[in-house]
């Protein structure tokens, strides 16, 4: 089962949520993201948050339409998105897609990226992505990974998360690499492109953030 989490980030950064829906998808809302799911005529499987960003009318609709609503005080150790993600992990998902987690406040965005690096999530091997109208972002562990060309996300960047990433090799890319060590703070692997229908990247040690981007909103 794939879980799609919608947080409360600016709606102008959201892609078409219906394009990501399938019979295998369950939707989970975080704070105002619950109302966003309802607006897109999708069915929230669960709701998490302090709901301080919804109006009284929107809150009434959420309580009416969503069976499981988990409410929390604003003063807590975890963000609403972290609480939702922790619950999703207990459901043993095959994959996780997170929307509404980019744009707006930079502290929220950086915190949301950090969530993808939770030890439990990394060790699980579950592919988890932050997705907005222009970008897909995920975290990759050492090994070999395939990427497939598609029109709306032609730029691919590789950003070291750990202090170094060892023996990075890129094949099928405009700017190939062979067993290159790259270090946190380097911009060497920003804005690459595939030159064929698919390519691979591999490395032997470290953790990479992988970002696929388009030229502009699509």
Automatic annotation (TrEMBL):
It is an enzyme of class 2 (transferase). The lineage of its organism: Bacteria, Bacillati, Bacillota, Bacilli, Bacillales. Its EC number is 2.7.6.2. Keywords: ATP-binding, Kinase, Nucleotide-binding, Transferase. Gene3D superfamilies: Thiamin pyrophosphokinase, catalytic domain. It comes from Rossellomorea oryzaecorticis. It comes from the Bacteria. InterPro entries: Thi_PPkinase (IPR006282), Thiamin_PyroPKinase_B1-bd (IPR007373), TPK (IPR053149), TPK_B1-bd_sf (IPR036371), TPK_catalytic (IPR007371), TPK_catalytic_sf (IPR036759). This is Thiamine diphosphokinase. It holds the Pfam family TPK_catalytic. One of its GO terms (molecular function) is thiamine diphosphokinase activity. SUPFAM superfamilies: Thiamin pyrophosphokinase, catalytic domain, Thiamin pyrophosphokinase, substrate-binding domain.
């Amino acid at each position: 089962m794939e879980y799609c989490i919608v947080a409360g980030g600016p709606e102008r950064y959201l892609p078409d949520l219906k394009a990501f829906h399938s019979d295998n998808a369950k939707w989970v809302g975080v704070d105002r993201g619950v109302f966003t799911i309802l607006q897109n005529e999708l069915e929230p499987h669960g709701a998490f948050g302090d709901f301080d960003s919804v109006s009284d009318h929107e809150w009434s609709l959420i309580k009416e339409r969503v069976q499981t609503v988990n409410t929390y005080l604003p003063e807590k150790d975890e963000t609403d998105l972290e609480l939702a993600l922790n619950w999703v992990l207990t459901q043993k998902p095959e994959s996780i897609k997170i929307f509404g987690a980019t744009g707006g406040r930079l502290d929220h965005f950086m915190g949301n990226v950090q969530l993808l690096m939770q030890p439990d999530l990394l060790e699980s091997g579950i592919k988890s992505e932050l997705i907005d109208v222009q970008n897909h972002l995920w975290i990759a562990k050492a090994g070999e990974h395939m990427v497939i060309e598609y029109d709306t996300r032609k730029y691919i960047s590789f950003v070291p998360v750990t202090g170094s990433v060892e023996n990075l090799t890129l094949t099928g890319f405009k700017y190939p690499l062979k067993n290159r060590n790259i270090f946190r703070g380097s911009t060497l692997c920003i804005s690459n492109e595939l030159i064929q229908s698919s390519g691979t990247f591999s490395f032997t040690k470290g953790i990479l953030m992988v970002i696929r981007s388009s030229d502009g909103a699509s």
